[in-house]
Amino acid sequence: MTLMGVTASSPFTVHDLEGMPDDGRRYEIIDGELLVSPAPGLRHQHMALRLYRLLEDACPADLFVIAAPFAVRTDAYNEVQPDVLVARFDELTYKDLPVGPVLAVEVLSPSGRLVDLNLKRAAYERMGTASYWVLDPEVPDLLVLELDATGHYAQVARVTGDEAFEARQPFPVRVVPVELLGRLR
Fold first, then answer.
1. Whole-number Å distance between alpha carbons of 114 and 37
2. Burial code of 97-113, b = ≥16 C-beta within 10 A, e = fewer?
3. Is 140 part of any domain?
4. How many domains does the chain fold into?
5. From the centroid of its chain, how far is CA 66?
């Protein structure tokens, strides 16, 4: 199979992404493998944007909160677009983030559940992303993973419904999963 001159047997690079259509889908590459996600649904988007606002309101000046789409491009074979990310302000470029963010957040959708919980988790771990949060709008819940002393993710919290998570990393903020759904509860 060939897509835009690249055969399925050769790895994709970030340069291949420039030729992808602007069709509402999210195109990402992990270890040279092209991942294509459909446009997110209402609950997904609402939860991601409410979390963005919550983080933005608490964010210190040396950090910056960004909502998707925005590229984390660490090398020629890896580009991901977390639903929400927090980066050090001085590490951002106008085009992308060339290092792992300090926090990456993915909001689960039916088509991306396995990718977010496995491939992206491993990719963020390799990038050295200190905190990885996974929100599930259907429960709703929040899974919080942080890098341990060995550089691997360890679960530090899982809160459901109206339970609160009091984050210390990357900065203090209180997150209640059901509140992120707002009117969609």
1. 12
2. bebbbbbbbbbbbeebe
3. yes
4. 1
5. 10
Locate 77 and state its tokens.
Answer: 């074979």
Percentage above 70 pLDDT, the chain: 95
> Does residue 34 belong to any structural domain of this protein?
no
Reported as a pLDDT band with limits 50, 70 and 90, residue 82 is: very high
HSE-CB at 158 with a 13 A cutoff on CA atoms is 5
**How far is the C-alpha of 107 from the C-alpha of 142, rounded, in Å?**
9
**CATH label of the domain that carries residue 159:** 3.90.1570.10
Each residue's pLDDT tens digit, 28-49: 999 999 999 999 999 999 999 9
- Write the CA distances from 63 to 33, 66, 88, 93, 170, integer angstroms: 30, 10, 4, 13, 9
The yes-or-no verdict on residue 4 having pLDDT over 50 is no
Domain that includes residue 50, residue range: 40-184
HSE-CB of 185 using CA atoms within 13 angstroms: 10
Length of the chain: 185
The verdict on residue 125 lying in a domain is yes
